[in-house]
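Example S7 (structure tokens).
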């Protein structure tokens, strides 16, 4: 069973930097990526982090993306969550 941790993205909509904040019982390696609505990934915005804290904050520089709606995914072997990002 996958765990869906509470996440927040702010500011959303954004024009430059978006901050991802998540907490919960996630431990280990977590992949965070941004995709357009067709599923295209942006490798320069993909981050793999080793999570060992109860609260985690990541900044993403999205100012180089064209104005549009995107999907931010947070996933590991036991965790999946996605949220819309408006740039």
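Recovered sequence:
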């Amino acid at each position: 069973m996958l765990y869906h941790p509470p996440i927040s993205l702010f500011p959303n909509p954004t024009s430059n930097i978006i901050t991802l904040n998540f907490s919960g019982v996630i431990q280990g390696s977590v992949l965070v990526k941004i995709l357009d609505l067709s599923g295209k990934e942006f490798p320069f915005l993909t981050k793999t982090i080793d999570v060992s804290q109860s609260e985690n904050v990541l900044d993403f520089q999205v100012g180089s993306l064209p104005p549009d709606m995107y999907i931010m995914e947070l996933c590991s072997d036991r965790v999946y969550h996605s949220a819309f990002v408006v740039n």
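Notes on this example. The longest strand covers residues 28-36.
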